[in-house]
Automatic annotation (TrEMBL):
Family, similarity comment: Belongs to the plant self-incompatibility (S1) protein family.
Location within or outside the cell: Secreted
Domain of life, per lineage: Eukaryota
A GO term from the CC aspect: extracellular region
Keyword presence, Secreted: yes
Transmembrane annotation, as ranges: none
Name of the molecule in the record: S-protein homolog
Gene Ontology biological process: rejection of self pollen
PANTHER family in UniProt: PTHR31232, S-PROTEIN HOMOLOG
Record-linked InterPro entries: Self-incomp_S1
Keywords: Secreted, Self-incompatibility, Signal
């Protein structure tokens, strides 16, 4: 039995709502997530220069001596697409890394180190 145009629209709306509920239920919108970046190079004269940011927040540049750390808290956005990146510069090299994504959150929960 073929669906009418009205039935097709209702089906698509219900399917979209179901997908939205499934997607948003994977992220707790009311809890804070903490990300901590720590210098564990274990060399007394080896510091790390970090610059961490998301598409909405710029956390600035920080210089981490051995054993020191920076951390920050945030709420994941409604869609669960919040991402943070950090630029790292050391005496040994430099790089840019995604320090928080949905994939990282699934692996380490609300406290990512």
């Amino acid at each position: 039995m073929a669906m009418t145009t009205k039935q097709q629209k209702i089906f698509i709306i219900l399917l979209s709502i179901n997908i939205l509920i499934t997607t948003t239920s994977q992220v707790d919108l009311y809890s804070y997530t903490t990300v901590k970046v720590q210098n564990d190079i274990n060399e007394s004269e080896s510091s790390i220069s970090t610059h961490c940011y998301s598409s909405e927040d710029d956390l600035g540049t920080h210089h981490l001596s051995d054993g020191s750390a920076i951390d920050w808290n945030f709420n994941v956005n409604f869609w669960g697409t919040t991402k943070f990146w950090c630029d790292f510069n050391t005496n040994h090299g430099s790089g840019n890394y995604g320090v928080y994504t949905r994939k990282v959150h699934k692996r380490c929960g609300d406290m990512c180190v």
